[in-house]
Amino acid sequence: MNMTLDTSTPRRARRASGPRRPKMPVPAQTWPPTVAEVQRQLDLAGEALLAGLSREHVVMALIGRIARDEHSLAYRRACHRHTTYDAQVEADLRAIALAACWLQDGPR
Fold this sequence. Notes:
The chain has three helices and no strands. With 108 residues, the protein is mainly α. Helix 2 packs antiparallel against helix 3. The longest helix is centred in the middle third of the chain and has 24 residues, at 55-78.
């Protein structure tokens, strides 16, 4: 068994050159959905209606999605596994939260 010890000098910690600027979220790309995308959305909505989902179920599902995505983002931050997708997820979380609020306040 051939074992060698790593005797190289450890890498230096990265020096902070001042306060970090917060990353700006990437704006969501908007374009008209394709016919296939619209059809898929309508199919999913139809399945939800057939399954008996109510407004309260939809709001709870949106809140659950927010909690899962926040947990996932926090885990990636703690493990220093940032991705370029994180900013888009944060922007989507705001949109989902707004949708949940509008659904809660809308007519019943």
